[in-house]
Amino acid sequence: MDTYKTEPRRFEPRLTSNLSSILISKGRELTSTIINLSENGIGLIANSDIDKGQMINVFLGPNEVPLELKVNVCYCREMEDKYYIGGQIKQACSGYGQLMKLLN
Questions:
Q1: Rounded to an integer, what distance in angstroms lies between the CA atom of residue 2 and that of residue 18?
Q2: 98: Cα within 13 Å, side-chain hemisphere
Q3: What's this model's pTM, rounded to 2 decimal places?
């Protein structure tokens, strides 16, 4: 019998959040909500679907820690009338570390 070890898909813990954000995709500005974050990953809810492999910019509003992320979309799943977008963070501004500390 062959045995093998499966490895988890996520290597960092995900922190739950509920942060209002703006998502920029192909020149479109969409309101979104960041529902989870990790050191290199992000989960968002938006009203529109985004293509897998697309690079998007995510901004937190002025009432939050100023933040801009460049994200590669790994998947986009329909959820009733919204979409769950999972992505890999490719570039984060210096405020990202501060935000992670606040959420932790």
A1: 43
A2: 8
A3: 0.81
Structure tokens of 39?
A: 């050191």
What are the extents of the domains in the chain?
Answer: 15-95
CA distance 86 to 44: 7
User: What is the 3-class SS of 23-91, one letter each residue?
Assistant: EEECCEEEEEEEEEECCCEEEEEECCCCCCCCEEEEEECCCCCCEEEEEEEEEEEEECCEEEEEEEEEE
Give the chain's end-to-end CA distance (angstroms, integer): 43
Q: What are the tens digits of pLDDT across the range 8-48?
A: 455 678 889 999 999 999 999 999 999 999 989 999 999 99
Which among 55, 65, 1 is positioned nearest to 24, based on CA atoms? 55
Give the CATH number of domain 15-95. 2.40.10.220
The per-residue pLDDT for range 40-73, each reduced to its tens digit, is: 999 999 999 999 999 999 998 665 556 889 999 9
